[in-house]
Design a protein that fits this description.
alpha+beta, about 260 residues, globular, nine-stranded antiparallel β-sheet, 4 helices, six-stranded antiparallel β-sheet, Jelly Rolls
Length: about 260
Amino acid sequence: MKHDAKGLLILDILGDGPARVLFVVALAGCGGAGEGGFDRLNNDAATADRDDHAAADLTSPVSDASSGRDAELRDPACPSGHVGRAAAPFEWYEYWGPTSLADGDRVIYDFSILPASDLTLVGGDDDRSYTEFQSYFEAGRVDDYYPIRGAEVTYVEGAWNLVEADFRVASQDCVFRINNVTSQPHPVAEPGFAGIETFRMHVWGGTTYIDSLTVRVAHADETDDVLLEEDFEEIAPSGTGSDVPDSVDPPAGASLPEGC
């Protein structure tokens, strides 16, 4: 796939030893200015901008009427029945074509996840083919930026977690809700997105489980357009020929989030 060819080539050539380090270099550009988002290294301006926001307490609740409406009207994305199993190395990529976004729209990812101890990405590409919509999970921390910063929201390792990632067009920022704890808004890596065209999921080590996945556009008039919905009871091959999760029973012993 064009987005990830460089990262995969490094793995093939160098093997397991240095691959993790080089993948960090390649992935530092996610959401960046290269085609597909994987070619940009972190720049000083982006780093300084995120540092300015790192002082905010991202685990304190925010007042957001639209987020409150979603929380009240939508059932939590709890795992149930069969779930999706994604064992590294894993890449899932779905393309639905350019979908324009209005100023008041929000791109929202709802899902439950039991992340691997290694790095997992759940996200998608915007209208510029940048991997702008990003949720990185690693070692109990989650952020829309990699390497993960110090002001991220945490998740529970070795357990199921409820996730809502809310990317807002008007303010060009992201708000996470992890297990009913809501982050402060913080800017996306590369402001300027006005559309969404793909879904992607990557696992770089270990096995991640995912369930009750929905990607939708929430409009200002309180209507939604669902772009992708998957309960993993049965899963069809990807339209792009990429990996897809296996439909399996949930792993034994993994605790459920509150409310499930």
